[in-house]
Design a protein that fits this description.
Layout (H helix, E strand, L loop, with lengths): L5 E5 L4 H12 L3 E6 L18 E5 L12 E4 L6 H6 L1 H22 L2 E7 L26 H21 L3 E6 L2 E2 L10 H11 L3 E4 L5 E3 L1 E2 H13 L8 E3 L4 E3 H12 L5 E4 L14 H7 L7 H18 L1
This protein binds uridine-5'-diphosphate.
Length: 316
């Protein structure tokens, strides 16, 4: 086991954050889990309430935070297009002001800090699969810009703090991730399709369904984040983390209908503005630098996620 550290996770009550919190506690660390519960939920971390090495703090990282820790995982931001369309200004604030506040904290503490960046920094990519050296194709004024430009600016801040203040930074570009604890109504494709299939409702494909994504199971992703944080100090990233099996949204819909054994019909709805056409990570760098690659096949991950949603729907 590693030396015990005091670790701060922002967005700790979110889908990814709550799984990361579980893993850090299992590894024996002391945890400070921070969330403002805008999109995260207390349900995701209820089981940590009485954990002797865990402290839960309600805090919005767009305001400064004064704590003492050794490591910071900065995950806080609304991550579903549905949520960031509802409050785009707060989304940019959480990405940019949040990064400034957490970098300021890391600077004062000389703590290593990891940024949860995103494949959205590539926009609607002109390079396929996306390598870290690709600068992206993003719209600065569209409905998704609050998130993609906010996350791009956060990356800039991380690298400027690194160059200017010699801060130890790690930047992960996270591709589409799915698994238990996704919110039922968060609007993302895997949760939407599974909930629709379980309820026997129409499966809503936006556009023709030929657009692609590459879906990573949450446990694999969290494993990648921890490896990145604990890796050699000189390696900053950015590094892609995700699964490189590319599927069309139409194929995903069929797969979920079949796995659920649902009688749902597939219907088509308008494609949202600026919806990227293709997305697949090039994982060469992650494989080489982190000795990491995703291990969970899509069908297996979907089975586990379906089981989670079955229970969640029964309980709701
Ligand atoms: N999508 C869809 N039906 C839904 C939700 C999403 O067809 O009910 C599509 C969406 O237009 C996009 C893809 O699935 O092309 C992934 O959407 P998601 O919001 O999960 O993530 P992102 O667009 O950020 O990759």
């Amino acid at each position: 086991m590693q030396r015990q550290q005091r670790v701060l996770v922002t967005g700790g009550a979110g889908f990814l954050g709550s799984h990361l919190c579980d893993r850090l506690l299992e590894a024996g660390h002391e945890l400070l889990c921070v969330d403002n519960y805008y999109t995260g939920t207390r349900r995701n971390i209820l089981h940590l309430r009485d954990h002797p090495r865990c402290e839960l703090v309600r805090h919005d990282i767009t305001f400064p935070l004064y704590v003492e820790v050794d490591r910071i995982y900065n995950l806080a931001a609304p991550a579903s297009p549905l949520h960031y369309r509802i409050d785009p200004v707060q989304t940019t604030k959480s990405c940019v002001h949040g990064a400034i506040n957490m970098l300021g904290l890391a600077k004062r503490l000389r703590a290593r800090i990891l940024q949860a960046s995103t494949s959205e920094v590539y926009g609607d990519p002109g390079v396929h699969p996306q390598t870290e050296s690709y600068w992206g194709n993003t719209n600065p004024i569209g409905p998704r810009s609050c998130y993609n430009e906010g996350k791009r600016c956060a990356e800039t801040l991380f690298f400027d703090y690194h160059r200017q203040h010699r801060l130890q930074i790690k930047v992960a570009r996270i591709f589409n991730t799915y698994g238990p604890r996704m919110a039922i109504g968060d609007g993302r494709v895997v949760s939407n399709f599974i909930v629709q299939a379980l309820r026997g409702e129409d499966i809503t494909i936006y556009g023709g369904g030929t657009q692609t994504r590459s879906f990573c199971y949450v446990d694999d992703l969290v494993d990648g984040l921890i490896r990145l944080m604990n890796g050699r100090a000189e390696f900053t990233g950015p590094v892609n983390l995700g699964n490189d099996r590319e599927v069309s949204i139409a194929a995903l819909a069929e797969m979920i209908v079949e796995l659920v054994g649902s009688g749902s019909r597939i219907v088509h709805k308008p494609l949202p503005e600026d919806d990227p056409l293709r997305r697949q990570p090039d994982l060469t760098l992650a494989r080489r630098e982190l000795a990491w690659q995703p291990a969970t096949p899509l069908e297996e991950g979907l089975r586990r996620t379906i089981a989670y949603f079955e229970a969640a729907l029964r309980a709701s």
